[in-house]
Amino acid sequence: MAKAKKSAEELEAAAAEMQAAEVVAPTAEETPVEAVEEKTEEAATAKAGKRSAKGIAEAEEKQAKEERKAHVSEVKAEEAEKPKHHLKPTRTRLERQGKKFRKAAELIEKGKVYTLAQALELATKTSPVKFDASVELHVNLSVDPRQADQNIRDNLVLPAGTGKTVRIAVFDDAKVDGADLSGVETVLKALEKGEINFDILIATPAQMPKLGKYARLLGPRGLMPNPKSGTVTTDVAKAVAEAKAGRVEYRVDSTGIVHVAVGKVSFGAKKLEDNARAVLASLKGNKPASTKGTYVKAIHIATSMGPSVTVATSEL
Q1: Which of 77, 157, 169, 270 could bridge to 198 as Cys pair (CB 3.0-4.6 Å)?
Q2: 14, 274, 283: which is closest to 138 by C-alpha?
Q3: What is the pLDDT of residue 208?
């Protein structure tokens, strides 16, 4: 009886052990399919998803980049708020000029408007150069040069002359007194060589077609004859005499300003005033009908390399 009881206990213990083994380590056949699929998905996510090492590194790098940008923006904003201090303040235009110019400019009262006579008197006193400087008249007009009727252009003979010695060439076979170079063939030979030994070229209308070949040579230098400037005419002798007497041509530039030399410093204030008033009268006579309101914006007198003197606009 004791042996039979013992064998039954051993069988029960063995069965219990087998059941425990089955619970702890189930066989592959008994493992659910859903658990396997879940583990596979988690492994794939860990390998290539946001939680992977590569993904985490990219996220950290992106965040660091944004932080750097924010820091740079803050620094720039702080610098913009700070007042800028120049070690050396920018000098005025007068301070950048030479000693002689600054000394001459002391004679001109800043902001003052002078009469034409006063301005010319100052111009002759404030020329800082040793040579006989030209006296220039600059008139700012309220015109639009792009409009054909407002593109002001004219020529006139100055009462006291220009003070310049001009060389005149006549593009015609007729000989003219006062011309430094004359004859069609003579002028053409000089142009063929590219030689320009004259300051003014006067031609007759009949000879103008022969000069078309040299337009690129003469045009940029302002030497191409033109009826508006009085250098294309049938009365060549008169044109030469006027050129020698001191004829000047003016034309408004792209900004609406007329620049004319009215003589030399050696002329004195009286002769300079006569010439300047002749130019102003010509400008007044050429006022376009389409111009409304103020015709003259500003008038200035200046010598070569000298300071500028403001003239009252009522002088025109």
Answers
A1: 169
A2: 283
A3: 92
Enter the tokens of residue 170: 């006549």
Which residues have CB under 8 Å from 163's CB, separation 6+?
Answer: 132, 134, 246, 263, 264, 266, 267
Q: Which two tokens stand for residue 299?
A: 């008038």
Round to whole Å and give the CA distance between 148 and 209: 25
15-31 b/e with 16+ CB inside 10 Å = b? eeeeeeeeeeeeeeeee
Query: How far are the Cα atoms of 111, 122, 305 from residue 102, in angstroms, in the given order?
Result: 16, 14, 12
How far is residue 201's CA from residue 170's CA, in Å, rounded to a whole number? 6
d(CA 118, CA 149): 34
Burial 164-175 (b: 16+ CB within 10 A, else e): eeeebbbbbeee
Domains recognised in the chain with CATH numbers? 111-163+248-316 (3.30.190.20), 165-245 (3.40.50.790)
Instruction: Judge whether residue 204 has pLDDT over 50.
Output: yes
Confidence of residue 5 (pLDDT cuts 50, 70, 90): very low
pLDDT, greater one: 24 or 141: 141
Judge whether residue 133 has pLDDT over 80.
yes
Tell me the torsion sign for CA atoms 79, 82, 83, 85: negative
- pLDDT value of position 12: 67
Give the pLDDT band of residue 56 (cuts 50, 70, 90).
Answer: confident
